[in-house]
DNA sequence: ACACAACCAGGTATTTTTACCTAGTTGCTG
DNA sequence: CAGCAACTAGGTAAAAATACCTGGTTGTGT
């Protein structure tokens, strides 16, 4: 049985080249080409011949690759997507993985690697080169280490207490009631919090609290 | 030049077996063995002959592998660590990667794979098998998918735009400037956001945005 | 053509937050 | 004991957010 492939790239010549290349591989066929994200989605919608794997360029007009990827994965979770990359930044690459990309292929890769990538993704849902894996690993590690650096958070217990109540969407009066304080006192704490955390307002305080893991998103009902 | 290796495992026989195995590989030597995490750290401390790579069992008495790994990476960030795993759960595996593990090796792996893993880690800082990579990928993706369930968030694009700026600690006037709107309009959006998200104030909006992954903590500077 | 949702923008009034002050009490430490 | 940090609490004023209104425009779908 053939592996059905679709290609989305804004450069016609590139599309045609890849198509020709894929034709030279055994048991593969290109079912359609798209020149931007919108067209890709439309073709996936209309085509009776759904692709198994899509080769997706990230930088396209109309709708870029990342947005297209997200929508694709939402509507057709079974379709595997291999990202065609020129020279993207790490955060963008991570975003595509988080959006569900199944593989990554540099645009200057060898033809053999294209074939290998497609077959691996078809078999294992998965193909990444070593540098990519290194980036992924960094991405995994990063989250745990965002803070840790400036961690001496200086906040006193009372301040942390007030901050936690702020994060529960209480205003100063309510907090004062709860802690048996004057609202002026609470305002004082609040002010110190703004200074110490270098925040501009309540939004900043909430972000600070979450970033520094003073407590967890899940514990705050909404 | 030889690759210097240390082994930490609580089973003596296993240690000796691996040591023997490694002796059979070219340009490798075992510099010491430890039977638990504490001993491993002590030996790293005292030994003049620091290992390049440590083969580390996760389940050990006294101090388990994960804790040992964390301390190791803190003190000796240059030492690479390959985890020896029997049958750990995913979350534990991810924890080791976040703690800086450079590779993962199943205890029932083929001898050739041990050699390959060591050489790859020595060369690339990095060796993971396909199933491991799959787990890593899931780990990366998971975070992005916590919500999604109740996702019909009703928020219009404009509202999301305003919300994102609120989360960047902007006030209504600043948002109005940025979006070329009247501040009254922004206030209108803001009000709708409060209603739709059932929030009481800015803190609630930020929490909502984060909970529903409208964007990521990391992307919001603080 | 009509309904409807999204978007925009104004008014008025109240509440809350922010900014910038002062100052007393408590408890710990050199 | 002196010094300091944490906690408390007050005043005044300006800025921002909230509550509750109104009404217009635009685009989409029926």
From TrEMBL, chains A, B:
The keyword rRNA-binding does not apply. The modification 4-aspartylphosphate is found at residue 57. Residues 4-122 form the Response regulatory domain. One of its GO terms (molecular function) is DNA binding. GO terms for biological process: phosphorelay signal transduction system; regulation of DNA-templated transcription. It holds the Pfam family GerE. InterPro entries: CheY-like_superfamily, NreC/VraR/RcsB-like_REC, Sig_transdc_resp-reg_C-effctor, Sig_transdc_resp-reg_receiver, Tscrpt_reg_LuxR_C, WalR-like. It comes from the Bacteria. Keywords: DNA-binding, Phosphoprotein, Transcription, Transcription regulation. Residues 148-213 form the HTH luxR-type domain. The keyword DNA-binding applies. SMART domains: HTH_LUXR (SM00421), REC (SM00448). This is Response regulator transcription factor.
């Amino acid at each position: 049985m053939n592996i059905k492939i679709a290609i989305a790239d804004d450069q016609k010549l590139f599309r045609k080249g890849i198509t020709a290349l894929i034709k030279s591989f055994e048991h593969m066929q290109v079912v359609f080409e798209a020149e931007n994200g919108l067209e890709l989605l439309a073709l996936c919608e209309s085509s009776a011949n759904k692709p198994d794997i899509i080769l997706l360029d990230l930088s396209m007009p109309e709708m870029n690759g990342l947005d297209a990827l997200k929508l694709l994965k939402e509507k057709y979770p079974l379709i595997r997507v291999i990202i065609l990359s020129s020279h993207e930044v790490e955060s963008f690459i991570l975003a595509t993985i988080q959006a569900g990309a199944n593989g990554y292929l540099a645009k200057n890769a060898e033809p053999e690697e294209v074939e290998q990538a497609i077959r691996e993704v078809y078999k294992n849902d998965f193909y990444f080169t070593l540098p990519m894996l290194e980036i992924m690993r960094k991405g995994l590690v990063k989250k745990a280490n965002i803070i840790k650096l400036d961690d001496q958070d200086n906040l006193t217990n009372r301040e942390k207490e007030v901050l936690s109540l702020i994060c529960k969407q209480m205003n100063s009066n309510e907090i004062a009631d709860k802690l048996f304080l004057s609202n002026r006192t609470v305002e004082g704490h609040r002010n110190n919090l703004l200074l110490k955390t270098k925040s501009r307002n309540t939004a900043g305080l909430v972000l600070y609290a979450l970033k520094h893991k003073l407590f967890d998103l899940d514990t705050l009902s909404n």
